[in-house]
Amino acid sequence: MLVVDGEQADRPASASVTTPSMPDNAGRPAGSSSIPHLSIVVLPFTNIGGDLEQEYFVDGVTHSLTTDLSRIAGAFVIGRGTAFTFKGKAVDVREIGRELNVRYALEGSVQRGGNRFRLNVQLTDTETGAHVWAERFDKPAADLLDMQDEIVSRLANTLNAELIKAEARRAERSPQPDAMDLYFQGRAVLNKGIAPAVMARARDFFMRALALDPDNIEAAVAAAQVDFAIGSSSMADDGPAYFRAAEKALNGVLLRAPNHPRAHMLLGAVQIRTHRAAKGIAECRQALALDRNLADAHGFIGLGKHALGRGEEVEGHIQEALRLSPRDTRAFLWVMVVGMAKLMSCTNADLEALDWLRRSIEANPNFALAHFHLAGALAMMGDLEEAQSSAKAGLALDPNFSIRRYDVNVVFLSDNPVWLAKRKRFYEGMRMAGVPES
Predict the structure, then answer these.
(1) What are the distances in angstroms from CA 258 to CA 15, 262, 290?
(2) How many structural domains is the chain composed of?
(3) Has residue 411 been placed in a domain?
(4) Which of 6, 128, 143, 284 is packed most tightly, with the most Cβ within 10 A?
(5) Contact call for residues 392 and 426 (beta carbons, < 8 A)
(6) Residue 216: which region, alpha, beta or left (left: phi > 0; alpha: psi -120 to 50)?
(7) At 140, is the secondary structure helix, strand, or coil?
């Protein structure tokens, strides 16, 4: 996570141990192995139409995006002081890649028409000149600063996923992948969902990365995320053991990198899942103070409120996560949390709960736990036929799931008698739907 320009070199404590050097390779071939992983320059966005009153907004998007991309794990971002020397000039991204020693260039344009803004962005591979990804945003011209924040947050989250995919594709072609190559391949696998086979494959990449570089912080955090995911998804009989392993690893990371946003967030998630929800929420808030674009942190805060029995507060946090990253690969998890919070709330929100749980499955039909949640909810409401169908779908994905395993990983702390009665009904609903007891 490094920003480099002629004015500053800001290296947060969360940066990877292996840090790229300043660009000193003008004329070096773009395919050189010395080019840092996940290195990018954000070129000044073009103000189409030339309206000078909008220039500050266009430049603001470029400035903010440069800063926010620097928070991506493992990123090397050319600072805005250098990037803005290309403002208003015709550029060849391949030449820029050679000059600045970066793998990617992000270009964009902003156009205002009436009461709407249109923003076009494209990510280009500087070695080949090929477009890696492109997107268009159409937004009403409301409060410009609020709109700038939203656009930048959405771009940063989307680019995070796209850059990981691009780096993983590069790594697949490498005859001798290094630790960061393996890390990016693991992250690309991890973004495919939560299933036993996916977790096993992702873990293998991270363990191989750590074998090559035991000090690789990003691989250590990602491996801890795998442990957390296995425990929280009731994939294993001993979920608490996975939580303990994740917590130990994350505490070790934070000793070396005390300002690592994702490490704080995942530590908070572990605490929420192990009956320390208030402390976990505080960790997630600290993560957001370090990286405002961590949509997952909002999702975990929502989970924490659910764990505390404050279900009426959950949806607001999940909506904020969805606002920051509406196409996030983990959005199905956030949506499921809202469904469960509404199902277990003391208000009569059962139909809303079903709607959210179905939305979760629509977003990712391969996550077994969502099917079991929906099965229990449907049986609670008397729809036994669909409940049994949902349970069968879940068992096809995870044949070893059981109510006993699920109960081991329960995170709820509420002692409200209405809530406790609903939990008892939910467990009975899963039994009626055909979910095995043990």
Answers:
(1) 10, 11, 11
(2) 2
(3) yes
(4) 284
(5) no
(6) beta
(7) strand
